[in-house]
Structure formats: C-alpha cells, structure tokens
Q: What sequence folds into this?
C-alpha cells in the first residue's frame, strides 16, 4: 500500500529529530552541570533555554514521554525565569531530580515513545510496605543505637553506616530518607553527601547537630538537607520530620470528584485519573447527586464543568464554598470557554484553576496532582493534631457527624470507641513529658497500623483518643481493640515503662446524636477504669429508651 507523501515526510522528520536527541541531551547535561556549579542567573537562564527547546519540540516529533517530562520541568522552572529570585535548595532538588529523569529517558529513544507520563510522574516515591528503610550516617555507637531503637519500634527498618562510601551499597528500594550527623562531617564530606546520586534524585536528607547556628544550618541546606534536628535529639520531633519528608501520612489515594453533565466526558477524565492511581467519583446530575457525593466521598479536589443544564459551575462553586469542611478543597473548572474575561469571572467564585476543553491527559494529571498536594497540606494544618498526626478534636467531631449521617442513610452499624492511656500522668511525672509524648506518638501509630483504613482515628485531648468503626458492630470493634492490645504488648518498644490503655465502646442508636454516643462511650470507659484498667467495655444501655 502506497503511503501519502505527508506520512513519509512525517516519518522522516521524526527520524531526523531522534538523531538529534544525543546532541540535545549533551547540551542539557552541560547546562544543568553549569547551573548546579554556579547557581547564578546566567547559568539558570541557559539551563532553562535548553529545557524549553526539548519541551517545545519532543512531542511534536513523536517523543511524547520526553516532551511530557520536559514540560513538567519547564513548569517547575518557569516561575524563576525573568524573576529576581532563584530556586531555593529544596526547589532546586526537585528541578534536578526531574532533570535526571529527563536525561535518562533521552539516552535511548527508540521510535515513537509510548511510555505513559503516569509511569514517570506518578510512581510512588515510597513503597506502601510495613517497614520503610532509613539510612543513618552516624559513627557514635550510643547515638546510633538510640536512633535505631527508637525508629525500629515505630515500624522503620534502620541501617547504620559509618561513612558516606557505604550509602550506595546500603541503599534499598524502600529507602525513604537519610539521617546524617552534621557534627561528624567536614566541609568536603558535607559536599560529597550532597552529591550522592540518591540524594540528588530527591531522596530526603535530614541532619542532626549540636550546633544550632545559622552557619550550621546553612551548611545543611547547601548540602540538600530538608530538615534539621538539634541535639539532644527529640525523637518525637525526629519522627514528625521523617513523616513530613517521606509523606508517610499521605499514602491514601487522592480522591477526585468530577461534576459534568456529559457522562462520556466525565467517564473519559475518570479513566485517565483512575489509571494514574486516583480514586474518582463522577456526578452527572448535580441536582440529585452532588450533596451526597460531597458528604460521603469527601473529595481532595473537585473538577467542575462550567456550563450545565441545572445550574452553572459558578453557582455550584458558591454552594461548595459555603461548606466549612470543603473550604480548603481545590476547585478546578473544566470548560470550552475561551474568553479570558469569563474565565476570570468564574475564578472569582473561589476556583483554583481553569482547564480549557479539550484537556490533554498530561495537563489534567499534572494540574490535579499539584493542586491536591497543596490542598492536603493546608487541610492538614487545620485538621491534624501536631503531636500524634491524628485528627484533632474539632475535626474528629465533624467526622463523627458525617459517619452518623452515613450510617443512617445506609442502615449500617457504627461503633464508637473512646480510648484512654492508663496512668499517663504518672508517665509524665516520673519519666518526663518527652517520654509521654513518645508514648502518645507510638500509640497513635499503633492504631493507624492495626485499625482499618476506613476507621477514623482522632486525638480527643491529652491522652484520650476517639475511634469510629463504620459498618461495624461492637463485637467486631472489640476484636480490633484486642488486636491493638496484643500489638502493643508484643512490640519491642524502647521505653523504660510498659503502658496499657482502657476503652469504652458504644453502638449508635437509631436517633442518637454525636454528643450522646460520646457520652455513653465515656461512661463505659470509666467503668473500664474502675474495673482495673487495661480493658475495653461495651456500653449496654439503650440510647433510645
């Protein structure tokens, strides 16, 4: 079969471009090295110009994966082009990490690339294993042992190494960060640490030091350090820093709600997002489906069509922004509307972005991911307890009200537990508040490990915690509490004292309020305390009598 001349020309152009990729790669590598060495305006602009060359041409000539990653790198760098500011060390780490990915993809281009951008940009940094691996660069045996014992007890696998040369051989697939003692490193060693391949490719680096001066912190930042802990090490603070750096608390799937009256379009967008690992719910009839979806699904981001028969997207955005629990949830409009005035008017209702139809899969994925990450960070500041990482009291009560409403609609049971650490005041008084904080942190992480993803856990205050077990009767909730007791008892926790907890369980009554079921769980808790502690008692009273 004869090919049309246009097809032949197209193939020739793609072949010619593929032959140019080694040259483009060499120029990119050279400019990236110069930027990394000089860190000045001239080297940045040169580096950015090479990225623009690749971003603007690769996809056009059949190298779609290279083009997609180059476009991502361009978006990371563009805020600093023509600006008085240059990337911070953390921002630069991200830029250089994407650059490494791009250069790796450019090394062996073979024909039209079919590698999905989702495989490159949305691959989890950390495996969802029970044990994540941490490298500890420390030659002080006592401090190394302390760090190892503390972190091992909270479900981390620890490898202690004496020097930088051992980093690469000790690196594992599930390595989530490196902890290094700044005090034991000279300037040359600090520089070498920052140049370790795994560190350059965005593996989090955390420093500990006796020196809290600006000079010490500057050395840490210049080496790529993303966190700094002052000795003596506060292990609660250390654990919080590790959690923050590794995004261990964000392993839940991102949830996206799509509101669009055209089912074919909403299904198309949903398939793109689901393939990338997002959890998606579509609403095609907002008049009847939107409110239950907002309550039950609790989205991390809402994609909203601007023009729909029942009402327009601006009105729906106004409704959504009236709901306190959704104030921090990003809204992204989807529309074929090309008028910038109308787009700006739509954005004034509280939207965070505007995507013009037809939306490419890459634009959709990148917009959604970046907005969700920012939205979750803001949401966590408002809803999370700093010490435990669990829901705070206010958010716990709000979520309880949601679960009560869901239980009523679905006709499924809801069990509520109030848990309290036994003799916790004695722990604080005799061993000190740092040990007390560590017990709270360990107990919180133990609950997160043992209870289901669907169970909701919050810190009610002090040493009291709330757990909501959806679709669960008290007998099943009792079994979960027993598993938690066994886990705590069997754990090799590096604490000078063993601890236990008591609990009260209550089953939601058919007409019961949140305050009522909490009161009954609290009464059951105090019965458990009166009967010797270290047990969980189920309320037997009838809330509807």
A:
């Amino acid at each position: 079969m004869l090919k049309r001349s246009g097809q032949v020309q197209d193939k020739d152009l793609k072949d010619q471009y593929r032959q140019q990729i080694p040259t483009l790669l060499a120029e990119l590598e050279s400019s990236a090295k110069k930027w990394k060495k000089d860190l000045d305006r001239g080297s940045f602009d040169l580096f950015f110009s090479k990225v623009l060359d690749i971003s603007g041409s690769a996809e056009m000539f059949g190298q779609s994966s290279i083009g997609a990653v180059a476009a991502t790198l361009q978006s990371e760098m563009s805020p600093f082009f023509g600006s008085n500011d240059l990337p911070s060390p953390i921002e630069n780490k991200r830029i250089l990490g994407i650059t490494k990915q791009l250069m790796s993809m450019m090394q062996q281009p073979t024909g039209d690339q079919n590698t999905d951008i989702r495989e490159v940009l949305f691959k989890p940094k950390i495996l969802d294993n029970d044990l994540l691996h941490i490298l500890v660069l420390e030659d002080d045996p006592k401090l190394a042992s302390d760090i190892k014992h503390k972190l091992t007890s909270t479900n981390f696998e620890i490898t202690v190494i004496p020097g930088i040369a051992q980093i690469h051989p000790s690196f594992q697939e599930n390595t989530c960060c490196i902890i290094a003692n700044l005090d034991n490193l000279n300037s040359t060693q600090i520089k070498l640490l920052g140049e370790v391949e795994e560190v350059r490719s965005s593996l989090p680096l955390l420093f500990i030091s006796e020196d809290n001066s600006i000079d010490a912190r500057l050395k840490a930042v210049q080496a790529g350090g993303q966190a700094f802990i002052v000795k003596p090490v506060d292990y609660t603070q250390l654990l919080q820093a590790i959690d923050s750096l590794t995004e261990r608390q964000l392993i839940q799937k991102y949830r996206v709600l799509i509101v669009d009256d055209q089912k074919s379009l909403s299904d198309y967008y949903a398939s793109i997002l689901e393939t990338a690992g997002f959890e998606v719910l579509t609403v095609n009839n907002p008049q009847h489906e939107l409110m239950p979806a907002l309550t039950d699904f609790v989205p991390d981001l809402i994609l909203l069509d601007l023009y729909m028969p029942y009402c327009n997207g601006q009105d729906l955005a106004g409704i959504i922004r009236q709901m306190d629990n959704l104030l921090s949830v990003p809204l992204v409009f989807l529309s074929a509307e090309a008028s910038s005035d109308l787009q700006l008017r739509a954005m004034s209702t509280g939207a965070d972005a505007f995507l013009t139809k037809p939306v490419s899969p890459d634009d959709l994925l990148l917009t959604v991911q970046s907005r969700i990450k920012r939205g979750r960070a803001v949401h966590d500041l408002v809803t999370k307890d700093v010490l435990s990482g669990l829901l705070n009291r206010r958010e716990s009560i709000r979520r309880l009200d949601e679960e009560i409403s869901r239980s009523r609609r679905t006709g499924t049971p809801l069990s509520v537990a109030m848990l309290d650490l036994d003799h916790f005041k004695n722990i604080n008084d005799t061993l000190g508040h740092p040990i007390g904080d560590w017990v709270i942190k360990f107990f919180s992480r133990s609950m997160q490990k043992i209870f289901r993803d669907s169970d909701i856990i919050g810190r009610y205050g002090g040493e009291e915690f709330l757990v909501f077990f959806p679709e669960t009767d008290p007998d099943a909730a009792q079994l979960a509490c027993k598993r938690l007791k066994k886990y705590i008892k069997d754990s090799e926790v590096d604490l000078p004292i063993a601890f236990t907890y008591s609990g009260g369980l209550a089953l939601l009554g058919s007409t019961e309020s949140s305050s009522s079921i909490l009161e009954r769980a609290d009464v059951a808790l105090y019965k458990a305390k009166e009967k010797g502690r270290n047990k969980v008692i189920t309320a037997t009273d009838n809330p509807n009598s």
The chain is about 50% helix and 15% strand. The two ends are 84 Å apart (CA to CA).
